[in-house]
Specification:
There is one protein chain. By secondary structure, this protein is α/β, with parallel strands linked by helices. It is about 30% helix and about 15% strand. The protein has helices at about 5-20, 40-45, 50-55, 65-75, 105, 110-115, and strands at about 55-60, 80-85, 90-95, 120, 130, 135-140, 145. The strands form two sheets. It has a five-stranded mixed β-sheet. Strands 6-7 form a two-stranded antiparallel ribbon. A hairpin with a 6-residue loop joins β6 and β7. The radius of gyration is 16 Å and the shape is globular. It starts with a helix and ends in a 16-residue tail after the last strand. InterPro entries: FTHF_cligase, FTHF_cligase-like_sf, NagB/RpiA_transferase-like.
């Protein structure tokens, strides 16, 4: 799909989210993976999936709508790999065995992940069982994200998509 067409779709989704009142903090949603009313429910739904239950290590992006997913993963005893925003400072590993349960919510935020997580190089990561990412839009036919980066799901360490 052409870059211009993808951007037009993003602009339309952002506008509709604002107009229909489903956009959530941080605002405005333009130019980012938007947070939305219902993000917590989406993460609760994820936590009930078999693929989530079986995962030991989950890579979850730092975007606001995925914050509840990071918290849920730690409560479920899963290690969380979180890229720093724009991957400027690499990756952080949040190990719930090393974080007090009372701090899981804080650790699930970007600032808290820097406080409670530890920097980790990609080659030192444990195998990732599940990847949770956000997107402005997805293809309604196959669920693929409309984005600037596509995950190589056919690689040797890839797993199923939820």
């Amino acid at each position: 799909m052409a870059k211009e067409a993808k951007q037009a779709i993003r602009e339309r989704i952002w506008r509709l989210m604002e107009e229909r009142g489903v956009a959530a903090f941080p605002r405005p949603v333009y130019g980012r993976i938007p947070n939305f009313k219902g993000a917590e429910r989406a993460c609760q739904n994820l936590a009930h999936l078999d693929i989530f239950a079986k995962a030991a290590v989950v890579k979850i992006n730092p975007d606001a709508p995925q914050r509840p997913c990071r918290e849920a993963a730690m409560h479920a005893g899963k290690k969380v790999v979180m890229p720093t925003p724009r991957i400027r400072e690499g990756l952080l590993l949040l190990d719930p065995a090393q974080i007090p349960k009372a701090a899981y919510r804080e650790a699930s935020t970007i600032a808290g992940a820097f406080k409670w997580g530890r920097p980790v190089k990609p080659w030192d990561l444990p195998p990732v069982d599940l990847v949770v990412i956000g997107s402005v839009a997805v293809n309604p036919r196959d669920g693929r994200r409309l984005g600037t980066f596509a995950y190589n799901l056919a690689g040797p360490r890839s797993g199923p998509i939820a």
